[in-house]
Amino acid sequence: MAEPHELWVFAYGSLMWRPGFPSEEIVHARLVGWRRAFCIYSRYHRGSPRRPGLVLGLDRGGVCEGLAYRVAPANAQATLAYLRDREQVVSVYREALVPLTLMAPERREVLALAFLVERAHPSYAGALPLCRQAHLIRGATGRSGSNIDYFLSTLAHLGELGIRERALERLLGLVGSHLAHNGGPGATHPSAVALMQEHRKRPVRVRPFRPEDARRFCYRTVLGAL
Fold first, then answer.
1. What distance in Å separates the CA atoms of residue 55 and residue 73, rounded to the nearest whole number?
2. Alpha carbon 162 to chain centroid distance?
3. Are the C-beta atoms of 186 and 58 separated by less than 8 Å?
4. 54 lies in some domain
5. Which pLDDT band, with edges at 50, 70 and 90, does 3 fall under?
6. Whole-angstrom Cα distance, residue 80 to residue 167?
7. Could you tell me if residue 210 is inside a domain?
């Protein structure tokens, strides 16, 4: 039986501020060739089948900075099982080992597990206009909370790392920049609640998704992973 190895995990969205697994080390990291984008329709964590939201994925092209978590060998398999259960509800991501540059003084490179968006999946939204992204985010709530909370929490943690992304800052202006200055991230502020209630009434048309779509793509989710 092979000896267990340590696992590196790349976080670019909610895993940055809610990882849910133990780690031995957390390092600012950079991934080249992939970018953070609101390109996935969410019908579970941050939206519903009736009123989908929009969450982040790693899409091709560009550079993405986030966090790298080093997981001890003894916890690697349990962490992988947890991440698959959390991230692969509809099999919209493809697991891959990607080369990360750790932004520590020595700037060393490691291979890390990352969840890359599957462009052929019906939940892939593509490059939506910012106004369309804002409309989806403002009115959606799912099992993990509101889409506004997800967006603001991500922005706050990027700010703590010193990471600025102009597209997300412009998107904040459309979603409601005042929400980021009322007690920090979170959709419990009355302004955010009122915004969600108003936009929830407005119809949203997205690509249809059927339960069998998750089964159709699940065989691709673990290719290249540990």
1. 30
2. 18
3. no
4. yes
5. low
6. 31
7. yes
